[in-house]
Every structure is written in C-alpha cells, then in structure tokens.
Amino acid sequence: MLTTPLVRRTWAPRGQTPVLYQCGRHWEKASIIGALTISPRRRNVGLYFSLAANRNVDIPWVIDFLDNLLRHLKGPVVLVWDRLGVHRSRAVSSFIRRHRRLHVEWLPPYAPELNPVELVWAYLKRNPLANFAPPGIKQLTTAASRHARRLQRRQDLLRSFIHHARLPLSLK
Fold this sequence. Notes:
Blueprint: E1 30-38, E2 45-53, H1 59-72, E3 77-81, H2 90-98, E4 102-106, H3 116-126, H4 137-152, H5 155-165
Parallel strand pairs: 3-4
Antiparallel strand pairs: 1-2
C-alpha cells in the first residue's frame, strides 16, 4: 500500500468537486502480509495479518508471521501459497520442515485471482481506503490496520473472498 490514494468516484454536491490533498515526493510505503484461515469444525473464516511501515516482505518477517500463526491455530495447517520468492526461500522451507503441522500447497504461477488473500488486499484498497490521502505513513498504517481488524469480524466478506477465488474448499 502506498500513501498515494486510490481515487474512486464519489458523491458530492453539484458544483463542489471533491479535492484530495496529498503529500508528494516521498518514498514511504506500508506492506502487509496475511492469511485467511478456515476452522475445520466450525467452518469460521479468520483473517490474520501483519502490517509494517517502510518494510519489504522479507524472510524474517514471513517466518515470524508463521510462528505467530502456529501459536494461534491448533492442529494441522495447510498453507495455500503463491510463488513469491520469500515463500520459496531456503530459510522458510527449513522452518516449514521443522514444523510438521505445516503443509504447503502451491498456487499456479501468475494466478493472483486464485489467491483469496489478494482479494482481501484489493477490497481494503478499493473500499475503506479509497480516496484516503493520509498526511503520513503513520496515519496510513493506523487506518489500514483499523479497517483490517474490522474486516476480521465480517464472516460474510471473508467467506466471499474464498468463494470468489474458486478454490476447492468447503465452507458449509
């Protein structure tokens, strides 16, 4: 997520064009990683995420995220992953081998439409964060985190991301 807003059509009184003010010429950004989970018994969908300012997704961050995920989830965990280089790294592969509860299923290359987590990020950018021009990275990360936490309580939306991805998963 960059601090440059995604501009969407909006409503305004006739003759009063909305104006978005934004800070220019900076290279700050927010990065987010996450996982959608499906409870095998209750069929609830969960959203876990980690957001950071001015950081690229790297191996230590992914390993830390997986470690925290394993603390929150019981039983076996199947990761349905895209082929991001960090996911295929030796260190992450070694972490997965050490944790027998983790099993990886790979998505085909260049298929973001099959990745439900990509749909979550697209929803956040195009809906609650659209037309949002924060003055700085702190405001962006605060707003993105707030909206992602709200999304965690929306079973209907979380289920729709999984259904839209058309993965062979059962949510009955």
